[in-house]
Amino acid sequence: MVKVVVGWIFPAVVAALTAVVALNVDAQPAVSKGVATGVALAAVQATLTTAALRWSWKRSSFWWVWAAGVLLRMAAFAGIAFFIYSFTQLSFVATMTSMVGFTTLFMVVESAVCLKG
Questions:
Q1: How far is CA 96 from the centre of its chain?
Q2: What CA–CA distances, in Å, run from 54 to 63, 83, 106?
Q3: Alpha carbon separation from 112 to 1, 6, 27, 29 (Å, rounded)
Q4: Most exposed of 26, 39, 40, 66 (fewest Cβ within 10 Å)?
Q5: Cα separations (Å) of 2 from 15, 59, 112?
Q6: How many CB atoms within 10 Å of residue 62?
Q7: DSSP letter string, the chain
Q8: Could you tell me the end-to-end alpha-carbon distance of the chain, in angstroms, rounded to an integer?
Q9: What is the reported pLDDT for 90?
Q10: Local confidence band at 3 (pLDDT 50, 70, 90 cut-offs)
Q11: Contact 89, 59 (CB under 8 A)
Q12: Confidence band (pLDDT; 50, 70, 90) for 24?
């Protein structure tokens, strides 16, 4: 039960609360929408990797799946950075800072939960 709460619900709740606060703060729309977008992208990444880790938990490929999740996040950072910078009006710094920060938080939490056993 603890794995479910921490691995699935924690990222969703933290992302939702942060997005609500970011959208209601008196800031430029590009900044507040950038923070909300970054947090939402981090939550999606966390959900996908948590699902992959749970799927591979009893398999011999667990460590490969875990490492691939880290590498895919690096590729996602690069792709999203290019897209945000080239094609949107979102604040690049706000989007990338929130996405990288929350992705790191969620990755630490999911790794701790999944590797705990």
A1: 11
A2: 12, 30, 15
A3: 15, 10, 34, 35
A4: 26
A5: 19, 21, 12
A6: 16
A7: -HHHIIIIIHHHHHHHHHHHHHHHSSS-HHHHHHHHHHHHHHHHHHHHHHHHHHHHTTSTTHHHHHHHHHHHHHHHHHHHHHHHHHH--S-HHHHHHHHHHHHHHHHHHHHHHHHH-
A8: 13
A9: 94
A10: low
A11: no
A12: very high
- Whole-angstrom CA distances from 33 to 25, 38, 86, 90, 111 are 11, 8, 16, 7, 28
Output the six-digit token pair for 8. Answer: 């699935």
What gap in Å lies between CA 28 and CA 114, rounded to an integer?
Answer: 38
116 has pLDDT over 70: no
What's the angle, vertex CA 31, arms to CA 45 and CA 95, rounded to 5? Answer: 25
* Average pLDDT taken over every residue of the chain: 88
